Amino acid sequence: MVMQAKTPASAKKIPFNKENRDAPHDKKRKIGRDIFGVQVMSEPRVRVRQAFSSVNSRQQGTGQSGEKDPSTTPGNNQDKKMCDDAGTPVIMNKDEIEALLNLKMKGKTKFDFKGKSEQMMEYIKRLRMCIRGLQESEASLILEKEHLIKQMHDERRDHTQTEELLRQKQNELENSILELKTTIGALEEKLKSLESQKQTLLAERESDAITLKKATAEIHRLTDESNTHLREFENANQQVLVLQDINKRLQEYNTSLQTYNSKLQNDSAAVAESLSKVQKEKAVVMETLSNVRAHSVVLQEQLNQAKASLQECANEKKIIMDADERLKAELQNALNNIKEKSSRIELLSAENAMFKETTGKSATELELLNRKSHNLEGKYALQLEELKSLRSQLELANHKIQITENALLHHRSDGMEKNMTIEELTRRLSESEERVREGELLRKKLHNTILELKGNIRVFCRVRPMLPDDESSPCGGDDVPVIQYPTSTELLGHGIELIQAQGQKHTFSFDKVFGPEAGQEDIFVEISQLIQSALDGYKVCIFAYGQTGSGKTYTMLGNPDDIDQRGVIPRSLEQIFKASQELGAQGWSFQMQASMLEIYNETIRDLLAPTSKCETTGKQYTVKHDPNGNTSVSDLTLVEVTKWKEVSSLLQRASQSRSVSKTAMNEQSSRSHCVFTLRISGLNESIDQQVNGVLNLIDLAGSERLSRSCVSGDRLKETQAINKSLASLGDVILAIANKEQHIPYRNSKLTYLLQPCLGGDSKTLMFVNISPDVKSTSESLCSLRFAAKVNACEIGVPRRNTLTRG
Ligand SMILES: Nc1ncnc2c1ncn2[C@@H]1O[C@H](COP(=O)(O)OP(=O)(O)OP(=O)(O)O)[C@@H](O)[C@H]1O
Question: Basic and acidic residues: which segments have biased composition (predicted)?
């Protein structure tokens, strides 16, 4: 450590000399002092100085006089002080420390050991103080250094944060400046356009002012001109007056000339008379002729003079006449001129008036333009105000944006957390939904199994939509529908209520009830499992029962060509073909045979026979049941099918052969029971297993009251046959439901054919089709009652027909 003993003044300044440059510690200490205050740094320095100065002064005192200087003795007050008189810290330099270290102890005498040892003790004390001071100084310096490092770190951190903040602020400011610039640019553009508008208006105003000026000048000119013309007119008038006066005088002169002329002519006559008198007297007075001749010559001369004078007068008269003429012409001209000028004046006056009007208009326009310009100026000032307020709003908005952005940042982090929660919840929800779906499937399967175990015939009820000819409510209104669907939990989707005209309500419950809104797909979803089991080797029978026109054919067949309206038969076959192909991957190969028959008037007809009418072929088809519960119909056409297209053409062929006719209740009424059968035999050689399933899809003929069907003849016979077979079906169902010993299957072809389905080991499903038509209420009630009985029938547990070969 370098220490310098300086005067208080120089110690305070610490000049930047070489020594100082070489003393980084001192520099650091100075910084430390600036940061922590003088108290921290000054104390150890003072102590060092104290140690040094005390020893130094002792040395000086001893060295110089050899006597103890009272002012430098250890016990002296000044010596005890921690700083010098000025209180300024003294910095000890290397030389001073050297001097302190090189200090020699001198006694009063050579043998003044006591004195020397006292000095030594004092010296040691001072050295110790010096060392302690140095140690303390070092410790404080270390502390200071640590503080500084810590502070430097803090400062750096603060600096980085401040820098970051500044950068953000700068970015935000740049953005807001950009936005402001854009806004200002837009506003300046607006301002420019306003200014250009203003300029245009000002230019227009100027040009209008110029036009006005020109118009005013023109008015002035015209006014001057008109004044001149007026003056000219007045002059002309005066001239006319003068000319009239001249004319008058000339006329007077002319009259006097004429008087003179007549007087001269009178005189000439008198002269001629006197001449004759003279000539007469000539003779008399011949002698006096020479005298008279001379007198005569004089007279002749007088006459000549008179004649000349007369001629002159005549010439003068002519001149005057000419002048008169000329004056007259001039007068006329003047008059014309005056007329012309008056008309011109009138014209000018009119023009003037017009100009006045025009200029008046221009002035109005100018006034308007002025007002417009004032308005625009006002608007401009307003817009400037608006701009100002917009700017302040912008600032406010920026401030708000700032706040919002801060809030947004918070919200974003919040939002991210919430998103994560939402994602988690969505995932859980989809899992739950999946579980619900699986549960629903399982529930369906279990339900089917329970039903299978119970061995009941399952019944689905389907109510078709209203058709144009249907009536919706008993009283013809639409407030109380005939069919209602209970919404209680146990009956929802299973119950149906039929309201009779008297208001009597009949409630039924089935395995499923489909309302008019249910489409073909909704129906099929519910039976697809059942169809599937035909491939597993079960006998499956689905038949549709209901009054005519209630939708049996629509349910069973629908419109095979329309993807949405395809019924149970097309959909089932498609599913079977598809599933059989899929099972092919597991080693299964299937053979399928389709057959279609109808029972018409208690006669079986092969709908796929090359010639469909049995009457023409004369074939008698008989139904046979083997001990295994398999049914066959003799001579029935069996067609191998492998795909839906083949079945589709078979269905078309069959539909052409089917007994269909128009009744009062249905345009296309099926007059027979139609049975489509698909025999399925599957073989899996890899597991040596064989399955034989049967799928019977039956569209029964519609039950109908003879009174309502309004048929006769053959149609009546058909209806009776249909009703008889359906009654037999009812009897069979009743017997099964009552668990009677004898079941009358043989009472009709239909019941006999359906025997394995009704009383055997097949999976049987009946659709009871209902019409919502109020006119069909009683038929619907019958159908529903019948269906309820069917639902109660226990037909035994379905059995899978499988064989394990070998
Ligand atoms: N669910 C339904 N949706 C739309 N229309 C239907 C529905 N059910 C039946 N229909 C229509 O009602 C009319 C009668 O239906 P359908 O021919 O199927 O009755 P049916 O019970 O077979 O009559 P029948 O016993 O006389 O043959 C048809 O025009 C059919 O298109």
Answer: 16-25
- Say what the pLDDT of residue 14 is: 37
The distance of Cα 715 from the centroid of its chain, to the nearest Å, equals 65
User: Is the pLDDT confidence value at 210 over 80?
Assistant: yes
- Cβ distance 594 to 677 under 8 Å? yes
Task: Please name each of the domains of the chain with its CATH number.
Answer: 8-164 (no CATH), 196-388 (1.10.287.1490), 528-765+775-783 (3.40.850.10)
The single-letter code of the amino acid at 429 is: L
Question: Tens digit of pLDDT for each residue in 223-235?
Answer: 787 787 777 777 7
* Residues 6 or more apart in contact with residue 726 via CB below 8 angstroms: 545, 700, 701, 703, 750
Structure pTM?
0.49
Query: How is residue 259 written in tokens?
Result: 């008087």
- Of 548, 566, 666, the residue with max ligand 1 atoms within 8 A of its CB, to mutate for a pocket test, comes to 666
Q: Which residues line ligand 1 (CB under 6 A)?
A: 464-465, 467, 546, 548-554, 666, 668-670, 701-702, 769
Separation CA 670–CA 700 (nearest Å): 8
CA of 120 to the centre of ligand 1 (A): 135
- Distance between CA atoms of 134 and 126, rounded to whole angstroms? 12
State in Å: Cα 547 to ligand 1 middle: 10
Tell me the C-alpha distance between 360 and 184, whole Å.
43
β-partners of residue 458 are 765
Q: Is the pLDDT of residue 212 over 70?
A: yes
Query: Residue 25 pLDDT > 50, yes or no?
Result: no
List the structure tokens of 221. Answer: 């000119």
User: Which amino acid does the sequence have at 52?
Assistant: F
DSSP label at residue 47: H
Give the burial class of 21: count Cβ atoms within 10 A of its Cβ; 0-12 exposed, 13-18 middle, 19 or more buried.
exposed
N-to-C CA span, the chain: 112
Which residues does residue 436 pair with via DSSP β-bridges, in sequence order?
none
Which tokens go with 663? 């009744």
Q: Considering only CA atoms, which residue is closest to atom 7 of ligand 1?
A: 464
